[in-house]
Amino acid sequence: MFLSDLGLGFTGLALGATLFNDGVARAASMAAKFSPTDGRPHFTPKAKSVIWIFLSGGYSHVETFDPKPALNKYAGLTFDKTPLANPLTSDKHHKRFRSVPAQEVNVRDVYPSIYPMQVGFAPRGQCGVEMTDWWPHLATCADDLAFVRNMWTTDNDHFAENQIHTGRHRLDEQQPSLGAWIHYGLGTLNENLPKFIALGGPTNSTTHWSVNSLYLGPEHAGVPLALDPKNPLPFGQRDPRQSADEQRAEYELIGKLNRLAAVEYPRDDALRARIRAYELAFRMQMAVPEALDFAPETEATRKLYGLDADATKQAGQRLLAARRLVERGVRFVQVYPSGYGTWDSHQKLKDNHTRLCASVDKPVAGLLHDLKQRGLLDETLVVFCTEFGRTPGLELRGGGKDGRDHHPHGFTIWMAGAGIQPGVVHGETDELGYHAQGEGHYVTDLHATVCHLLGIDLRRLEVPGRKRLEIDHGHVIREILS
Fold first, then answer.
1. How far apart are the first and last CA of the chain?
2. For position 5, what pLDDT does the model report?
3. pLDDT, tens digit, for every residue of 346-395?
């Protein structure tokens, strides 16, 4: 029943990704029309695995990692009443921005009244990077982080959650997600586990593109796992009425019958893939529950991730699971510490961000400390991001008085670990936190950087008949590399 469900709906696509971890199986996929990669890096990699931490909804860059004292100095004034350049008249405003609503009715990014910062800030670590007071635990890791403060994207709706993972605006033809490209491009480090796993997401039915593999074939899509060792994978457990020996015998019989059929149909790639699928499905039933079982973890480790407090438990569990998965050879773990749109603080930003930062601050810092003490940070790349920033101006819709709207023009992400120069800040937004300065970095520059550290050249993964745009490839952010 488990395998017969594969390919039926999104769950089927995700499950299918767990069952195709070798070259034989790849040939049976939708990608069989072209020559798949051999699974080897294109050049010497710095990283083996990636933990990609995504905060859904758009955290405010100016109240997290890009504090702007000018917002306090000119609070209540409109942009045109300050001595600073008016960001609304900048050529960057329309050059980088694509609104889904008609431009004449779209007001989401042009609120003119400056809203002050809702939290204090200070230099952190020996590097002196400025972070706000909502990150006391992460501040202890400041000297391990590389901040990129001039990110930008083009979609100001929450489809941007897909865009930061695929590189495409909602009005464009969609592309495979970053995790899918990595799955497609690299071989496995553990034949008993998927190469691309999602924890806590995708966070909404509209955001499945964030782990989708599209024309690369469903076997390269992200596999959503639940943090329940007894049932981590839908349809992935043995029927309780059947013993392990009985199931093993069943799989062996199926394998024999399939191999007999393979003699008659030697060129049937799908048949060979099916044989491998049964074999891997059986192995996963042991490997996945073991990877998600926290019982062997010490009490000190549990506290490090915040598992002892309700406010931090969810994020802590997902991040601890991510560490256990990369420790066992999973290539790409996409972690959603919180639910869909959680950080979307259109109103009551101070209350929301105070609570939300506290829910992830300790778990994320715990992950970094844990990886470092285990020697895993030298081979694991950690990415911390969101889909866009939030407006420097006060959101006025609906009588707003204490929130910020979506802001794609400039925001901040950070990276740490393998191949990353620690304790650096690259790029900036203007004094009000509005526009990413210089050329800035479109979201695919982040993709290119991740792939580069894994030893992948995205241009060499081109699929015949599937033309990618120049912007899809991105440019490596070399200023933050070690």
1. 49
2. 37
3. 999 999 999 999 999 999 999 999 999 999 999 999 999 999 999 999 99
For 454, the token pair is: 């894994």
Structure tokens at 411: 């925001």
pLDDT-based confidence at residue 271 (cuts at 50, 70, 90): low
Contacts of residue 456, defined as CB under 8 A and 6 or more positions apart, other chains included, come to 41, 42, 45, 181, 182, 185, 186
**How many Cβ atoms sit within 10 Å of the Cβ of residue 170?**
18
Distances (CA, A) of 420 to 40, 57, 167, 268, 396: 22, 26, 22, 45, 40
Packing angle, helices 269-291 and 310-327, rounded to 10 = 130
Identify residue 2 by its one-letter amino acid code. Answer: F
Q: For CA atoms 237, 243, 249, 250, give the dihedral sign.
A: negative
All structural domains of the chain, each given as residue ranges with its CATH number in brackets, are: 37-227+292-480 (3.40.720.10)
* Global pTM value: 0.86
